[in-house]
């Protein structure tokens, strides 16, 4: 493999991996507060993608598509938090986990009923090089994905590390009872975390739709398990571990496809990496 080919694969892996990180980051935020794996988050991702597709079909403007995807996903995520997760607060974690899996499957069926089982095109950007890193051309969709995810990840860092809201979230994640006694209202802050997590998933769904020029009802299936793998790889509850694991997984998948071809599907890379890491570090790469 020459360096130019490696460069193309690395850019592709970074783009896809950054979307993995963006999607998994929402899971990390929710897990930090509820200690529950929000599997239905992948359904929120698909709802956001369809919201973006509808907006782009009406306006042919990528900015509106991203905003609509974030809004649709946020509203759907807040509905799930209010209708499903809030009544189950304090229940054994297995109960909301099983219910969340059912919600994820039901969301895919609902999208299939509303929009049909077929792929819908989202031709927001032409896949032609707009930036060159030496001999490696970076396409417009790749630039949009990398720039969009970088800005959002920096924004999430600003919220979680530099604001009173982020301080309240960290306090609730460390000790719910003490934080409540200090005047922090868990339902309100959980809803805000769901809103942010869902908005991130919605934007990720639209970006992937733009990257692959398609949205479809079951597009949340792959993020459902890859985001879970990223969260566990990075360490449960570790924000920057999630980001690093997402990018790393994207790079490994891209390079594995080049070296192994169809002999080992990229989907299997996530689980192989998960098994290897858990054997060496059961707490994840960045877990404590």
TrEMBL record:
Coiled coil location: none
Superkingdom of source: Bacteria
Membrane topology: Multi-pass membrane protein
GO MF assignments: L-isoleucine transmembrane transporter activity; L-leucine transmembrane transporter activity; L-phenylalanine transmembrane transporter activity; L-valine transmembrane transporter activity
Keywords: Amino-acid transport, Cell inner membrane, Cell membrane, Membrane, Transmembrane, Transmembrane helix, Transport
CDD domains hit by this protein: TM_PBP1_LivH_like
GO biological process: D-alanine transmembrane transport; L-alanine transport; L-isoleucine import across plasma membrane
One annotated Gene Ontology cellular component of this protein: plasma membrane
Family per record: Belongs to the binding-protein-dependent transport system permease family. LivHM subfamily.
Listed name of the protein: ABC-type transporter, integral membrane subunit
Protein species of origin: Marinithermus hydrothermalis (strain DSM 14884 / JCM 11576 / T1)
């Amino acid at each position: 493999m020459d360096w130019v080919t490696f460069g193309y694969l690395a850019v592709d892996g970074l783009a896809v991996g950054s979307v993995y990180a963006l999607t998994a980051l929402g899971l990390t935020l929710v897990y930090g507060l509820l200690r529950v794996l929000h599997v239905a988050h992948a359904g929120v991702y698909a709802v956001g993608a369809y919201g973006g597709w509808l907006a782009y079909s009406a306006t042919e403007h990528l900015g509106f598509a991203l905003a609509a995807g974030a809004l649709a996903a946020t509203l759907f995520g807040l509905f799930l938090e209010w209708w499903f997760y809030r009544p189950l607060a304090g229940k054994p974690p297995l109960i909301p986990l099983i219910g969340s899996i059912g919600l994820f499957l039901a969301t895919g069926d609902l999208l299939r009923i509303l929009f049909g089982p077929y792929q819908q095109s989202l031709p927001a950007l032409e896949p032609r090089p707009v930036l060159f890193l030496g001999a490696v051309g970076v396409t417009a969709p790749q630039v949009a994905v990398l720039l969009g995810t970088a800005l959002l990840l920096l924004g999430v860092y600003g919220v979680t590390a530099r604001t009173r809201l982020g301080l309240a979230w960290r306090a609730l994640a460390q000790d719910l009872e003490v934080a409540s006694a200090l005047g922090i209202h868990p339902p309100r802050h959980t809803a805000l975390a769901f809103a942010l997590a869902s908005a991130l998933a919605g934007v990720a769904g639209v970006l992937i739709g733009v990257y692959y020029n398609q949205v479809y009802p079951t597009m949340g299936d792959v993020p459902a398990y890859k985001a879970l793998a990223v969260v566990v790889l990075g360490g449960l509850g570790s924000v920057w571990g999630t980001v690093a694991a997402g990018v790393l997984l994207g790079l490994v998948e891209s390079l594995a496809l080049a070296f192994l071809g169809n002999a080992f599907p990229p989907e299997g890379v996530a689980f192989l990496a998960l098994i290897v890491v858990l054997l060496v570090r059961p707490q994840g790469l960045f877990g404590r």
